[in-house]
From TrEMBL:
GO terms for molecular function: pyridoxal phosphate binding. This is Pyridoxal phosphate homeostasis protein. NCBIfam families: YggS family pyridoxal phosphate-dependent enzyme. Its cofactor is pyridoxal 5'-phosphate. Belongs to the pyridoxal phosphate-binding protein YggS/PROSC family. Residues 3-216 form the Alanine racemase N-terminal domain. Keywords: Pyridoxal phosphate. Pyridoxal 5'-phosphate (PLP)-binding protein, which is involved in PLP homeostasis. The modification N6-(pyridoxal phosphate)lysine is found at residue 25. It comes from Clostridium beijerinckii (Clostridium MP). Pfam families: Ala_racemase_N.
Length: 226
């Protein structure tokens, strides 16, 4: 099936309140154009350089999501380019986002990435460090947290469901509290192989790469995110 048919099939499965994010990392603009023509406006990249280049050579109404591990020294390039940073994962990164976005008096929209599976190979805040992290976020003027993102450990449906439930519980607990800079609106969890389970457990944004663009011919590295 082609990209257009893949998107149509996915949309037929997704509830209305769920945002479909096309994970377009490593994909050429021709493939993104096919997705755009099929109605996609949310695209996810995991390399800053690739996101910047694509954003400068593609449709202006696209919302670019940064979904990879973000290095502090690359943050400045995302200012005025990124719709949502999914991978806010440390106080040092938070401080750099605050610093770079303050220079242009813009607020960065972000998601807190939680390392829900406590995997050493993945970035993200550990559960026990979350409230200290939130205290730091609350001191910011140019960072706004819109929700949570997780990349769960590879496992079967039962294992996936366990991690999704755990994340949703944290999401709901934070939602009940009153913060200045934090509002739990987006729960970004679920990829090509597990998005239906994620939606059943409360996800309202799914990151789909292979399910839209097909198997990758090559990968530029970074955490698997689609």
């Amino acid at each position: 099936m082609g990209i257009k048919q893949n998107i149509e099939e996915l949309r037929s499965k997704l509830p209305e309140q769920v945002t479909l994010l096309a994970v377009s990392k490593t994909k050429p603009l021709e493939a993104l154009e096919d997705a755009y023509m099929a109605g996609m406006r949310d695209f996810g990249e995991n390399k800053v350089q690739e996101l910047v280049k694509k954003s400068e050579n593609f449709h202006e109404d696209v919302r670019w999501h940064f979904i990879g591990q973000l290095q502090s020294n690359k943050v400045k390039y995302l200012v005025d380019k990124v719709h949502l940073i999914h991978s806010l994962s440390s106080i040092s990164l938070l401080n750099e986002i605050e610093k770079q976005f303050s220079k242009v008096n813009k607020v960065a929209n972000t998601l807190i990435q939680i390392n829900i599976g406590r995997e050493e190979s993945k970035s993200g805040i550990l559960e026990e460090d979350l409230y200290e992290f939130i205290e730091a976020i609350e001191k910011c003027k140019f960072v706004s947290v819109k929700g949570i993102m997780v990349i769960i450990p590879i496992g079967d449906e039962e294992s996936n469901r366990k991690y999704f439930k755990k994340t949703k519980k944290i999401f709901d607990e934070l939602k009940e509290k009153n913060y200045n800079n934090i509002s739990m609106k987006i729960l970004s969890m679920g990829m090509t192989h597990d998005f239906m389970t994620a939606i059943e457990e409360g996800s309202n944004l799914v990151r789909i790469g292979t399910g839209i663009f097909g198997e990758r011919n090559y990968n530029l590295g970074g955490e698997n995110n689609g």
